Amino acid sequence: xxxxxxxxxxxxxxxxxxxxxxxxxxxxxxxxxxxxxxxxxxxxxxxxxxxxxxxxxxxxxxxxxxxxxxxxxxxxxxxxxxxxxxxxxxxxxxxxxxxxxxxxxxxxxxxxxxxxxxxxxxxxxxxxxxxxxxxxxxxxxxxxxxxxxxxxxxxxxxxxxxxxxxxxxxxxxxxxxxxxxxxxxxxxxxxxxxxxxxxxxxxxxxxxxxxxxxxxxxxxxxxxxxxxxxxxxxxxxxxxxxxxxxxxxxxxxxxxxxxxxxxxxxxxxxxxxxxxxxxxxxxxxxxxxxxxxxxxxxxxxxxxxxxxxxxxxxxxxxxxxxxxxxxxxxxxxxxxxxxxxxxxxxxxxxxxxxxxxxxxxxxxxxxxxxxxxxxxxxxxxxxxxxxxxxxxxxxxxxxxxxxxxxxxxxxxxxxxxxxxxxxxxxxxxxxxxxxxxxxxxxxxxxxxxxxxxxxxxxxxxxxxxxxxxxxxxxxxxxxxxxxxxxxxxxxxxxxxxxxxxxxxxxxxxxxxxxxxxxxxxxxxxxxxxxxxxx
Amino acid sequence: xxxxxxxxxxxxxxxxxxxxxxxxxxxxxxxxxxxxxxxxxxxxxxxxxxxxxxxxxxxxxxxxxxxxxxxxxxxxxxxxxxxxxxxxxxxxxxxxxxxxxxxxxxxxxxxxxxxxxxxxxxxxxxxxxxxxxxxxxxxxxxxxxxxxxxxxxxxxxxxxxxxxxxxxxxxxxxxxxxxxxxxxxxxxxxxxxxxxxxxxxxxxxxxxxxxxxxxxxxxxxxxxxxxxxxxxxxxxxxxxxxxxxxxxxxxxxxxxxxxxxxxxxxxxxxxxxxxxxxxxxxxxxxxxxxxxxxxxxxxxxxxxxxxxxxxxxxxxxxxxxxxxxxxxxxxxxxxxxxxxxxxxxxxxxxxxxxxxxxxxxxxxxxxxxxxxxxxxxxxxxxxxxxxxxxxxxxxxxxxxxxxxxxxxxxxxxxxxxxxxxxxxxxxxxxxxxxxxxxxxxxxxxxxxxxxxxxxxxxxxxxxxxxxxxxxxxxxxxxxxxxxxxxxxxxxxxxxxxxxxxxxxxxxxxxxxxxxxxxxxxxxxxxxxxxxxxxxxxxxxxxxxxxxxxxxxxxxxxxxxxxxxxxxxxxxxxxxxxxxxxxxxxxxxxxxxxxxxxxxxxxxxxxxxxxxxxxxxxxxxxxxxxxxxxxxxxxxxxxxxxxxxxxxxxxxxxxxxxxxxxxxxxxxxxxxxxxxxxxxxxxxxxxxxxxxxxxxxxxxxxxxxxxxxxxxxxxxxxxxxxxxxxxxxxxxxxxxxxxxxxxxxxxxxxxxxxxxxxxxxxxxxxxxxxxxxxxxxxxxxxxxxxxxxxxxxxxxxxxxxxxxxxxxxxxxxxxxxxxxxxxxxxxxxxxxxxxxxxxxxxxxxxxxxxxxxxxxxxxxxxxxxxxxxxxxxxxxxxxxxxxxxxxxxxxxxxxxxxxxxxxxxxxxxxxxxxxxxxxxxxxxxxxxxxxxxxxxxxxxxxxxxxxxxxxxxxxxxxxxxxxxxxxxxxxxxxxxxxxxxxxxxxxxxxxxxxxxxxx
Lengths: 534, 998
Description:
The complex is a heterodimer. Chain A is mostly helical. Chain A has helices spanning 2-26, 51-60, 72-78, 97-103, 111-135, 143-167, 187-201, 219-231, 233-237, 242-255, 294-298, 303-306, 321-324, 333-337, 395-408, 412-424, 430-433, 437-440, 469-479, 485-491, 517-522; strands at residues 40-41, 83-84, 278-282, 318-319, 338-339, 341-344, 351-355, 372-373, 390-394, 449-451, 457-459, 500-501. Chain A contains 21 helices and 12 strands. A 3-stranded mixed β-sheet of chain A has the order 11-10-12, with no helix packed on it. In chain A, strands 2-4 form a two-stranded antiparallel ribbon. In chain A, α15 (395-408) packs antiparallel against α16. Chain A is globular. Chain A starts with a helix and ends in a 12-residue tail after the last helix. Chain B is mainly beta. Chain B is 7% helix and 49% strand. Chain B contains 9 helices and 53 strands. Chain B has a 22-stranded antiparallel barrel. A 5-stranded mixed β-sheet of chain B has the order 10-15-16-13-14. In chain B, a hairpin with a 4-residue loop joins β20 and β21. Chain B is globular, with a radius of gyration of 32 Å. Classes of the chains: A mainly alpha, B mainly beta.
């Protein structure tokens, strides 16, 4: 036994001494630091002056979701009375998402409002981060730069908030970059925040309008956002602000920095960056900023040969025939906005197909049923992404905000002058372009009501008078397919009351979208908007 | 005594202590001392006729004996005709032969079924089967699945209870799917750790024909020694080895095989479509009109695939050096045109023994080269082509009147033959691995071993779409090329100290070790378009004009990680009755957060060999009865590098004063708390062998709990910057039963039948999806996706429910006008057109609750027959093909059944929907592998030692109610059971093969 013990002891000694030597050798082999090669980590990043714009850029780029898949355009148009996406031979049910938009039966999983929430807060978050980096001195900027960049970021943040104010209303106001779980605010608070932020930063914003400020928040862009928010103040905050809307519009008009585009079509050209209407554009580029894909959803696969495209569109959305019926004779905007009738092969001139106005049902349309949005120029060789910049805030809208505010405050004639001025470029005969104050106070010319498969009205629904309905029609003709319509319909009380196409109203709560399930799940401070299940 | 000891040493296989001169001396001594006795001679061989060198031949109850030489021959003098010879060799049953008057003996040893003395490979060492205290399975080469197997895993398909191996794809470049004991991780995957000769590798590092045994460590107490990668089990592959003093041999094995599509889906052919036109059906899109031809599109892109595999192994050695060298060639065709792969694998391993065998060294090199065609950019077959073939209008011609590929402007609709013929692509891979190992015995008890491996693989890819490809014809690419390359290199080193000691009834062993591993990956990729000519293919990528126009793409990357571990193990055996094993691994990975880089993984297991107890002495019918229990903790490493660090990316472009510059955006939230997923497992098992081991098997029950399972968690933005974060949040639970049962119903001179059955169950549950830091207001999230145009999630992962639950609308009826009627969770019945996402409910589960297999091997004289049956029970499959194509309203060609009445009532007249009508039971029984072999009798052989010829079939017949092609569908990930419509169909394969040894 002793022998065995001795052997064990000696073996253990050997083992121990060996392990000791080993561990000394190995001590250097326990380093687990990560080596980073093709990435930048936040700890190791020291921004140079050239990085300042790159850091700021991340607050602007989210805006490109406007013309992207299930983006702002779809949110504003699919839910309104002009654009419809029916089931087509190649699908377009997509889990019923377009039908829910049309029927106003969205739930907390609906993509378009969720995308809007996520994207806008992405922009807000980025803006806050830049502001923090400037305050903390992490970015190498001069004092002067610090003031102007901070103002620009706050104005941009207000732009994002103006969008959320419109869609979700009761969203958390986050004015600094931190790690606190955000607390929800009321729609009124958000409205006040947007107004006060814009008014605060406007003096520090640049007045320059040239290539260096193109696509950036200038003083005029900020006034435009402010005017738009004031225009909808009654919806957002319960109290109308027509005079303030006029005042903000006047600041832009009086700046002389902008003018009406000579023709309607060139606003939507592929190369529209020097159009005099652009108060604030979202620049797109086929190569660099390829998110403009809305045309793929509108055009038919066969439009490839019509426009000599290098892509084959998908052919989903088209125009509610009821809207086409409202256009006045002589209004060139009908042709300038919609692709209708025979579609001609770009190379051999043959008729590729013929588009018809009628769309029997949201459940069943063929490819060629329904006129397609054609106001954004499709260049020869266009791909799945267009070069056209999106005129997010354009000068005509400034004029129309002023006109509407005048109209609503008893100055119909003044309003009519502005509207006539806007219309005049779209009518060959100047007399046809003229409108009167009385006309603008008329009811809408729309025949609201749901359509039977043969195109006749089968359920008229609410036929009550729409106050200033004719002005709403003017907005429709001018801004069709520019992601305005939902906001306008709500302001005129149509959105939540009228029947159109296959849609019947679902109640007042629909003027706000539900907060997304994912957002509710991850932030226990959020309550769902009224009228929606959690 | 001394002599028998040395015989035993030969037999142990591990300690090759005899020298040639010792042989001579022993022979001489024996010859001299037995002058007056009768001389006999003979050979010893295995059942295949291969001579056994080193077998011991002893006159029973004496010390008089010899060992066989390289050719299995022996000569011996026996005292009288009454003597009895005892012939033995490890792994074989000992035979006793009365000498009688015979002087020439041909002894054929049968393989030992008892296997208790067999050596089992466990982590960083070996153990006798009898001493094993955890769930470990061993499959040897002779029991492997024969025929055209995809990789090493398919060799043991259906052979190991609880290890599910399936081959859902017929793509010859794709491997198998492996699942062990359910789903233990949400994002960590289900791949087991694969070791080839002790070094982490893949299932295709060595050729299947070059493998000797595969050991599978299943439970946590066994795999805890592998810590971070032990959760999904460890598959230990041991390659064929040479032995010291082995006669040189050359083994050839080879086969050629024919594969066909296992089943086709019935879409409308041209005649059927014309009938529909005649019946007045109107279609849109693809089937809009009759184009006047009759084309079987699937036939146009498929073929009978012929494959061949050849394998050569050289083995041999003297008393100081032995060598194994092998070369393998595989030329495999898939059933689709241009779907094929060619691979060469070579391996050389040299062992050296020096200084009285105290120092043993090994140098090995494994190299392989593989090349396969690509039809997708960098990927083998592009399943989109298969989709185009089945949905295409069968009346369309291949070519238009100008001889170009016939194309039309239909949404996502391209000529599949043109797609294949106008694509040129090739991926070429090279793998290289250098092994060096050394062990030194300080004395009988203490050994130190060191191992170092340098490994690397690289690939280069080229891909080109011509100007006649639809990418140009429709989308103006004007020729598209891409080139890419990836490079991986890694170092692996380990040092272990082994201590073994036996005193009295106690025997202990201890092992301590250190293990270092690092990996570096880097790569480069470029694309271009607008080429002046098709003539360059992808070989002159700079000649495209897309680069100048900003339409070219380019990227590169590099990343690295490290894994370091200290580990130790102690085993204790008392009187061969009570067994204990304890191990601990302390491991660190660079992938984890600053505060959590290191984790500890203990494992402990115990065994009680009941059959060795005194009270069992009279139960002679019990050969083996062992109760085992174990507990172990393992981990799962983070899926990718740098997840704990916050990241910034130069992302999208931004227009700044007329110039486009890149924005700088966060790409990842930092999570310094990122840590190991820990899986804790309890395993209880019973091994038994009864009636001379005619009945044997094992039963295991396990329960495993994963804490802090990693998931990409949605976080609120703000305050977070990026909407997801990788965090240790969820808790998962798996439990199940595994039964292996082997019976030998017949055992005789000419006829033998061995039958083994496996049965395993698994049930899993998502216990929790929240923790203190990340809390969900809802206790579920959605997974899986139908794709357009249905565009909805297929699965829901919910607390308290198992993973794999299908979640959708429950269809119960159809309206007269052909719209599905949906039963809501409240029991209300509404048309599908009025249903919403709120009406969804659980429709089934995609993970089988049980798997079984039944393997039979029968031999009669020189004939042998193996029949393997496999199946899975109690699960559902979402049949995407029916969901998409069993609908007459879609704008593509459809299944014949699209015009059948749904629920016997009405033809469907509704958009494609995800409803329970397409969720089918998947239960199946497959006659999977049947092999008939014939071994030539030894006297018929002149130049060879053995010769065997066999015929084998894989995936022969399937019995199931499932309407799709194959009920063995994808079971990985969090949306198992989705039978995707574009899946490369599985194949049926017939193989003719020969093996011989020179």
